[in-house]
């Protein structure tokens, strides 16, 4: 018998053994019944006697569902999702700074030098032209300011999209990158219903308050953004939380502002000042007293403004018929 024939017989024997093992896996070890796989519960169960042969199985499939081939192709993905918060939408490669290999061992001095050169060139190649360098700097500014202001990720994403639109429509000439980036974040925060006052934005920005306001009006007008006037009630939860006040105070402050709006008291007034005064008044009415100075520091507004708005809110409340 030749070597080829021997190898063929061995291969056939191995295949038959594997098929027998597979057949054994498909039958119940108790009654010999047929096994069924329940993908919803992650279990393999005997259809005859109900024995659970396997449980807590890992589902290797995707977390999304698709109902046709086109939807499947559209949802299929590899790697991390793209994001507008990075100039290359997160599709570039980053080289780690740890200077360690895959096993956690430190690299030699020669390898460290090599990796440092690669990092340098990788950083240079990530921005192909001045437009991408501009975008990278601006998105870094947006992320820095949003972190300092405690703004959520959806606001950062919206601000990044607004800045990209401003760059594409050539609104940057004559204006600073930081100014347009700050204006984009200010607009995004107001669109998302989590506004920050101009003073708060100014505190974390690298440009002055007048430039922020001027650039904001220009960007909103040129891009046709729909930004509603800031509602004083949207500031109340943050102020109440920073002052460690109860939900009762927050509810009472909203009620004061609602009454003031129905009387037209809010017209022409700073929404931040009205919100701060409402929180102060509600805390007094609910016997959870805070000082005007504490509210002033949280809202970043003067005590004089709080006193003036406070009296106006109480007068509007007293004029409501019971």
Structure description:
There is one protein chain. With 322 residues, this protein is mainly α. The chain has 13 helices and three strands; from the N terminus they run αβββαααααααααααα. The chain has helices spanning 3-25, 69-75, 109-126, 130-149, 153-168, 177-191, 198-204, 209-223, 236-242, 247-263, 271-285, 292-299, 303-318, and strands at 35-38, 43-46, 52-54. It is extended and about 85 Å long. The N and C termini lie far apart (109 Å).
How would the blueprint of this fold be written?
Layout: H1 3-25, E1 35-38, E2 43-46, E3 52-54, H2 69-75, H3 109-126, H4 130-149, H5 153-168, H6 177-191, H7 198-204, H8 209-223, H9 236-242, H10 247-263, H11 271-285, H12 292-299, H13 303-318
Antiparallel strand pairs: 1-2, 2-3
Question: What's the gist of this structure?
Answer:
GO terms for molecular function: DNA-binding transcription factor activity; TBP-class protein binding; zinc ion binding. The chain has 13 helices and three strands. The protein is mostly helical and 322 residues long.
Q: Helical region count?
A: 13
Gyration radius, rounded: 32 Å
Would you count the extended β strands for me? 3
Give the low-confidence spans. Answer: 18-24
Largest sheet: 3 strands, antiparallel
Q: Would you identify the CATH H-level superfamily of the domain at 130-223?
A: Cyclin-like
Instruction: Name the shape in a single word.
Output: extended
CA(first)-CA(last) distance? 109 Å
- The share of residues in helices is 55-70%
Features:
3 strands; single chain; Cyclin A, domain 1; 322 residues; 3-stranded antiparallel β-sheet; 3% strand; mainly alpha; extended; N-terminal domain of TfIIb
